[in-house]
Amino acid sequence: KRHLISAGDLTRDDAVLILDTAEEMARVADRPVKKLPTLRGRTVVNLFFEDSTRTRISFEAAAKRLSADVINFSAKGSSVSKGESLKDTALTLEAMGADAVVIRHHDSGAPHRLATSGWIGGSVVNAGDGTHEHPTQALLDAFTMRRRLTGGEGHDLSGRRVTLVGDILHSRVARSNVRLLSTLGAHVTLVAPPTLVPVGVEAWPCEVSYALDPVLATSDAVMMLRVQRERMKAAYFPTEREYARRYGLDGDRMARMPEHAVVMHPGPMNRGMEITAEVADSPRCTAVEQVTNGVSIRMAVLYLLLGGSEPAVTTVPAART
Ligand code: CP
Fold it and tell me: Is the ipTM of this complex over 0.90?
């Protein structure tokens, strides 16, 4: 594959290959020199039209650990603010020899447009587009769950029960997770107030519940989603207090989860709304671990898209056979 636009584009074998490659990349992070020469001479452009902390920084760290040259482009402070189009921005990057473009955009479909337009010749990686998809987030979430809930390398998530809670309507993380988790054999339940459930959800490979309490005892992972107030009309939303009371994860609710079950959050978190500080800071919450795993996943994605057949892979301990 040349691009990564949707988690739905990945077969089970594709997904397990990325997760297993990320395990190899994680071993690089444990070495005194956290760097591989695999992408030396290649250029990765981070093209961010929307704010980001974790995704932008971890793609930069991933590309640098693979020895690529990295160009960071933020729409704020660029000629986009003078009205320059996506096409002209892409043509400018192509003229600078981008081998891969990692794009975050407020419009759903912008990465697909970039990948199919012919404006650029390199690989396109979707780093989150509107309310559509965030495939590397779903991959790092699956990587985290696989490490915590299964035997790890070589495994999928067959039979694991994953509950996604909150603002499903606006969540690209939820859409990518539902697609990837079902490909990996997990059973997914979405929990949200009726006003934050998307139209057409009946066609998704998951169940829907309007109540959180009944599903806690049977969940292996409970993923809390950020309430995206910036994308919301007031009518969609109960009061903050009411939301926290019905859908927030606090210590009492966490205690009702099985002992082995984990709490996840993609970040950024609204502490006090979808998750209490007690839960966010507990050892059962994987939010920080997810960030660490994100670097390994993004290294794996860049490596497989740009350099997967290069001999430099032999420098990774326990390389694939
Ligand atoms: N999880 C996530 O995408 O975070 P950022 O918006 O900070 O990249």
Answer: yes
Q: Which of 3, 42, 56, 104 is catalytic?
A: 104
For 211, the token pair is 């109540």
Digit-coded pLDDT (tens) for 170-201? 999 999 999 999 999 999 999 999 999 999 99
Q: Which of 46, 51, 52, 172 to mutate to test the pocket of ligand 1 (most atoms within 8 A of CB)?
A: 52
| Residues lining ligand 1, Cβ inside 6 A | 52-55, 128, 137, 266-268
User: Which structural domains are found in the chain, ordered by start?
Assistant: 7-134+290-315 (3.40.50.1370), 135-287 (3.40.50.1370)
Show the low-confidence residues of the chain (pLDDT under 70).
234-236, 308-321
Nearest atom, ligand 1, residue 267 CA: 1
Model pTM above 0.90: yes
List Cα–Cα distances, 119 to 47, 91, 111, 188, in angstroms.
14, 6, 12, 38
* Residue whose C-alpha is closest to residue 127's, from 94, 172, 97: 172
The whole-angstrom separation of Cα 253 and Cα 215 is 11
Q: What are phi and psi of 105, to 5 degrees?
A: -145, 145
Across the chain, the runs of DSSP E, i.e. the strands, are 43-48, 69-74, 100-105, 123-129, 161-165, 187-191, 207-209, 221-224, 262-264
Contact of 192 with 167, CB cutoff 8 Å = yes
